[in-house]
TrEMBL record:
This is DUF6221 family protein. It comes from the Bacteria. InterPro entries: DUF6221 (IPR046193). It holds the Pfam family DUF6221.
């Protein structure tokens, strides 16, 4: 699971950099309808999972949610199809 968490954290960072570039080039108003809030929420879920004890009954559900969220990056060369389970 650690490799999936690292993958998601890297994609979130990439997306934040891309949005910062767009904001600097076009202006912040271009980002009003962006998925920046979703990136922030996904980042929070990654942090929550890392802090969660493996015995926590919520960990399996959160792991599943993170695998589903990672599917939005399935075309990325670092995405592993085994995460799709």
């Amino acid at each position: 699971m650690d490799d999936l968490l690292k993958f998601l954290a890297a994609r979130i960072m990439d997306d934040h950099h891309a949005y910062a570039y767009v904001a600097g080039t076009i202006g912040g108003e271009a980002l009003l309808d962006s998925h920046l809030p979703m990136l922030d929420l996904t980042e929070q879920l990654v942090r929550d999972y890392r802090a969660m004890d493996a015995s926590d009954p919520r960990s399996a559900g959160l792991a599943h949610a993170l695998r589903v969220l990672a599917q939005s990056y399935a075309e990325h060369p670092d995405y592993h199809p085994r995460w799709r389970r």
